[in-house]
Amino acid sequence: MFYSFGRYILLLRLSFRKPEKFRVYWAEIMREMVSQGIGSLGIIAIISVFIGAVAAIQVAFQLVSPLIPKEIVGSISRDSTILEFSPTISALVLAGRIGSSIASQIGTMRVTEQIDALEIMGVNTPGYLISPKIIAGISMIPLLVIVSVVLGLSGGYLACLVSRDIAPTDFITGLQDTFNPVIVTVCAVKSVVFGFIITSVCAYFGFYTSGGALEVGQSATKGVVYSCIWILFGDLVISSLLL
Amino acid sequence: MIEIRNIYKTFGENEVLKDISATFLPGKNSLIIGSSGSGKTTLLKCIVGLHEPTQGDVFYDKENFTDMHFEGRVPIRKQIGMLFQNSALFDSMTVEKNIKFPLDLFTDMTKAEKLDRVNFCLEKVNLKGTNKLFPSELSGGMKKRVGIARAISMQPKYLFVDEPNSGLDPKTAILIDDLISEITDEYQTTTVIVTHDMNSVMGIGDHVLFLHNGEKWWEGTNHEIAHTDNKPLNDFVFASKFMRAARAKL
Lengths: 243, 250
Hints:
The structure holds two protein chains of two kinds.
Chain A: H1 2-15, H2 22-62, H3 72-111, H4 114-121, H5 125-129, H6 131-163, H7 168-176, H8 182-207, H9 213-242
Helix pairs in contact in A: 2-3, 2-6, 3-6, 3-7, 3-8, 3-9, 6-8, 8-9
Chain B: E1 2-11, E2 14-24, E3 29-33, H1 40-48, E4 55-60, E5 63-64, H2 70-77, E6 80-83, H3 95-106, H4 111-124, H5 140-152, E7 158-162, H6 170-187, E8 190-194, H7 198-204, E9 207-212, E10 215-220, H8 222-225, H9 231-237, H10 241-249
Parallel strand pairs in B: 3-8, 3-9, 6-7, 7-8
Antiparallel strand pairs in B: 1-2, 1-4, 4-5, 9-10
Helix pairs in contact in B: 3-4, 3-5, 4-5, 5-6, 6-7
């Protein structure tokens, strides 16, 4: 475990060495941003709307008491969406969507000698292959989380419109009630950290793939599993430090 | 000129290369031959720096490559072109971008100059007009030729080729051999080829190095092979009935 962690740190150090030509790296960063950001928008939109709707329905179901104001459903949905559902659930889904793609892409390049070809040319391969993915991850995943928050809360509103358990106006009032801005900071920190974890951990497993097609699949699986574990661990650490 | 001195390479307990020394000259096709598992590709990877030798040194024009760090090796690597066994073309790039890639990274050429160079390289390998195709749209022989075009795009001083004929029909294999030989002659590159194709050995082997169980067993020219009494080499070269019959007629 210490060996792997040391190797991971060394790989990250190599990844952020001075690029051979910034223009080429910039083009890679843009390409990765489109792939990670636009490519994940669909899945994030779908899961966010459904999770937001389900969250609102379940909170409403559990708080059926004349003593509890109906607006509280909106407040609880908002806090849980911003604090947990959008950053963490999105990150877990993105670990599957982006992480497996990164690990298998780099792993395939390794087993088909494309990485060797880059090295022979004198290219800093971790820098060229990994740093654009990490930069794209830490910039696009927070944007996807913002989209997820908006759509999650919209999903809650839609659930109120459809189910009639809570009046949509009560839900809106609840959303605006007792808002503590720190939850936005926590959400932002989480999304940046999760973006880094997903891209760097999966790139690490892809980069050190050896063998053939079977091993590429195993690297992708390992990358997703380990990034999910680190996301949950990071979630715990950030929540306990910032809340 | 490339010189290797007393190269050893071990993987765990397994000693793959044992005390190999040789000199590869410019303008000559140097072929490393041997049966599967004899250490040919490992030796090639040690020479280009993809593997670090356990012991021994590699010199590129008297400069000790083995002692250099990553940054120190970059100027030499810019003078290296390599064709891999499976071509190792970048899947996500078109043929044009594959060949242009080293030019983008390491030169200050204008767009037009780079395109001219790409077209020149493609013409050299008889693939004019394939600029916009992706590697997945090419046949095995075409991939090899694009690999050669990419390898020569930076006008290398040293050309390394790993199993250039594997998976190719005999006619295409000869075309690839001729192309490599032509490039060696024209640009006076120091060319090192790993192969176990006897057609290549007899056709373009200016200098042949025979490895057996990780050791250098024989060194000479393609003309000398037919007359050697080195048993492992004879067993390798004349393994087929056809080759034994051919030898008998010599």
